[in-house]
Amino acid sequence: MKIFQPSWVHHDEKSIFSIDIHPSGERFATGGQGCDSGRVVIWNMAPVLSEEAEANKSIPRILCQMDNHLACVNCVRWSGNGLMLASGGDDKLVMIWKKTIGGSGGIGAFGGGAKSVEHWRCISTLRGHAGDVLDLAWSPQDRWIASCSVDNTIIIWDAQHFPKIVHVLKGHTGLVKGVTWDPVGKFIASQSDDRSLKVWKTTDWSCFKTITEPFEECGGTTHILRLSWSPDGQYLVSAHAMNGGGPTAQIIERDGWKCDKDFVGHRKAVTCVRFHNSILKRSAPKTNKLQQYCCLAVGARDRSLSIWLTALQRPLVVIHDLFQDSILDLSWSCDGYTLLTCSGDGHIACLQFTAQELGTPLSEEDKNILYQRMYGKNANIDLTAQAEKEMIVENSDFLNLSKSNPLPPTLIPQQQQHQQQHHSGMVKKDYHKPLTNIVSQSSPAMGIQSSSSPATPTPILKQIETKTADGKRRITPMFIPLNDDNETVSNAANNIPSAIEFGSKSSETMSNAGMKQLTSDEPSVPSVVAMSVTETAEPATSKLDNRLKKMATLPPQKAEPLAAADQQTTGSGHTVPTVSQRLVERTRLPTYATGKATVIQGSSFKAFGELRVQVQNNSVKTSYGTLGRVVGLVVSVAQRTEKKIWETVVGSPVVCFAVGAKCAIVCSQDHTIRVLDAKTGTPVFPVLSLTSPAVQSAFSSNSKLAAVVTESGILRIWNVPEKAVFLSTTCSEIMSGSFVTILHVSDQGMPFIVLSNGSSYCYCRKLDSWMLINSSDPVIRHGLIGNKANAPVRNIKAYPLSTIQSYGSFSGPKTNSFAELHSSSWQTSAAIAFIENQIKICEMIASPAELKHWYAMLGFQLALNGSEEKIRQVLDDLLGASHSLDTRNGDECDPSVLGISKHIFMEDVLNHLKTQTKWQRIYTEYLDQLKFLKERDGRDAIGAK
């Protein structure tokens, strides 16, 4: 970290009340007192950041100076797009500045004759306040700008039509000294001298919440009270608050507007707080697990500045006596590594950090995926969209549903999502001590403190308690993955948190939190560990606000170390949960860096239920060469024993193998394939040979089909009971330089493959072609990100399509703003095209549960964004051609798909149309037809009897 105080940035030795860095990072603005008026100055950032630029006299320091305000300027703020600068002052005015090619608006340095480098003109003067304007804030997307004043009001101005006033927020009984917007645009917050903080709704500008408790002890006030909202929208941090007689910055949680934590340590009142613009991420120092957190700067009247990371309990940096007067404003650069701060003594300071100190900002697409999951919207939600025009509700079905926010359908039923119930834990910290150090790393004087009385401890951090192998207790936060839709099979980044918790340690998942597996710990139910994709129950992730939970403490168990052979199979040295945690064992296959068959080193095993097959290459030396052992075992979990039931040898090293209920398939380096009886070890087939060695092998879940893929892309599936080939084809036509990383065969004989480039396919015998499941295609990318509200599914038997699609390694949109996700005109067409293709794939692979889900998703999409023509087309198809008004199709179509009546799908679509009042007549029309057909079919059934 570097600290620099450029002496040449000043307002003729007068106070500087506000500072703000331009979104481009190339300039910054200051506002304060001029010689005989208010002054706004736009400065060049380059001489501040670089000594070389500062010494170069050809590089200007001042870009423009505006002395138009009649009195002191209290606040300057750049718009989000950087095109406009707003300034507010004691003259009761808000001025909006815009850069022009030339002309009036700026004067030379401090009133001298020097010519301005840039020309900024006042394009609008906003008059409406009856007193000094103290703070300004642009809304997300610059739709509005809010100003607050000593007249006790906040005015919302229409930034598209200056100087139009949208609304005047009245309710404070004291001077309003700070205002900030919720990053997702739902709320605006203000703080006042009346010892309250108010949260206002942007939908109708009503006061949603008034918070007073943290401010009741506040006596003397400050010139400004600049509060700030975290970039993830989860936390609002106030300026001057009190706890136990000491000044604090109050942390207000969006979830329930709880006020049970605050930042303590400053000796005098906190004047301003400012969150870093981005959500940050980095690897935890000790565990290298990925952390996700926010960064906050806090300034106070004690002339000290503290920097906080919400992943730490104590501040990252504390700087004392930075100025000779109170800190009055703070601003982060958009790249995230520069912080500017200004003081009433007329000076500014620049703090430069590194990525190692602060972390790296989350990409715009990841940030907005986070918004999508937490709030059902992204950062660029159209704030101008008004609620649907009032309509007369003609159908009683719409009375309740049309007013509620429609929720997208979920693939996994809710009762399955909530199977695991956890209990919340309790930790209390108190670091309420005075500041002592001049500049300290992780200063012990500051900390996050509970705002409740010490006598009544309240839960501050919800954490998980586990026991390590040496018996020590470990408190670990548990996070929900953020980028599940980008996860690959061997992706280690599935510990990315999707929400930020103050004071959280490094994120570690429960599945590898130091638990040792018993040697004989095979699940009593058949676990399909022989497959590349393991069937596991999906964790409950439906509600993000309950993201931290405590797992019920397991009773102490006697643990034995893993055998060397077992450790080889589990892969990366991570320990595995015990069976009592009800987690199916996950056996990771070796990672094929080149797609070439790799000889298994040491000893490795795979299991199906109580059967275990173990392979050890080069274990027998003979005069003819070395042999590999293949051993069959029966493992008893109850008796904690294992028994060898057969043993055989192979003459060529084994490169891959798989185990089913009755058979095992063993593939060797010399291109040979052996199918062995899992109970006796005798061959089921004679030794087979293909043109190249196999790199993947798998059984279907019913163990009747065995499949292999070779280096050259040959795919074979055999029907083991019938001892016949089921499918013979090649993957080479779709591999194009990549190789197969996952192979799965459904019970119906449909092979699914995932390639190293992230694309996935399924072969259809009926079409004699590979069906595209996942790729970098923009329609597929948009469809998968837009329709995946929960964590990805990992249940290959029940949900094969979603499971395979969850293993793609593609990133999100490549745009800078992510505005496309829900605003562009192509969205609806792309979403419907994707969903309809998903429906056709589900039909071909015979996945009824997913078929029903995607019909429901189609109804959801049509209800929100569909046209009447498209809705009628879908409903006519589900109703049946003979009942449709459109008789061009002629032939009677099949009334069911995969054994499910089309009328069931039609009901799902209609239920989603019911959420939008504008579709009520279509809903009523088709519901009447559906009821008529049901009654007729019922009469026909009775007549047939």
UniProtKB/TrEMBL annotation:
One of its GO terms (cellular component) is HIR complex. Residues 558-578 are annotated as: Disordered. SUPFAM superfamilies: WD40 repeat-like (SSF50978). Residues 681-878 form the Protein HIRA-like C-terminal domain. GO terms for biological process: chromatin remodeling; DNA-templated transcription; regulation of DNA-templated transcription. Residues 1-211 form the CAF1B/HIR1 beta-propeller domain. GO terms for molecular function: nucleosome binding. It is found in: Nucleus. Residues 566-578 have a biased composition (Polar residues). WD repeats lie at residues 66-98, 126-158, 169-210. Keywords: Chromatin regulator, Nucleus, Repeat, Repressor, Transcription, Transcription regulation, WD repeat. Required for replication-independent chromatin assembly and for the periodic repression of histone gene transcription during the cell cycle. Belongs to the WD repeat HIR1 family. This is Protein HIRA. The lineage of its organism: Eukaryota, Metazoa, Ecdysozoa, Arthropoda, Hexapoda.
